[in-house]
Amino acid sequence: MFDGKFRTQVDAAVKPIGEGLKKSGISADHITLIGIGMSVACAVAIGAGFLRLGFLLLLLTGIPDLLDGAVAKASGKASVRGAFFDSVSDRITDGLLFGGIAYYLVASDGRPWVVMLPIAGYVSAAVVSYIRAKADALGFNAHTGVVERAERFILLAVGLLFAEILLLPMLAIIVIANIVTATQRFVMVWTQATQATPALNDVRELRIARRQARRKTRRSEVTRGERRNARAEARRQNFSRRSER
Questions:
Q1: CB within 8 A of 241, min separation 6: which ones?
Q2: What pTM did the predictor assign?
């Protein structure tokens, strides 16, 4: 949702900042590494029970995620490698954040279903990301869904800021929204893949046609071989007759 509606505006807003960071010699990879470091600090703070500090660190974790792409574009070094590194760092950050929340809930609550909420949030978020990545690799479009990474960050931030009353509801909303998004993307890619894939009957007919073509080829090869043998035998007989004369 965020990428579809506000990505262009956000990119335009952070472009001057990206150009300034480029002039200072900071690369996009450096910013991505800073984001991973901030997510580690955020996870530790949340796990230790300092949820307000975790809220602030979560906001700081989101800043490098906005700036690394701007720096790469400003320096003219946007690349597949950078996109790959950024995607991997996003998954690491998600794991750290949900892991920190799970650790906190184990220590502060301990009820199994409560502890499972952040775990389910991470797993469902990973499925959402995987569907899009696999669809992109196969050449399909999976840019749809009610929640993406930016929305999850916002929901987590609200939950941490008002942890006493909203942390568990926000986690539940994240899980439900992730499941809805994964379903939307699955259906979208399934439809495209179905249209791009031959029907089963067509596949069977194609296989039958190929078999028949191979059989005809073999028959024609046999026929040509028999003709060659017949001509060779005729030449031998002619040669024998001439020799007798």
A1: none
A2: 0.75
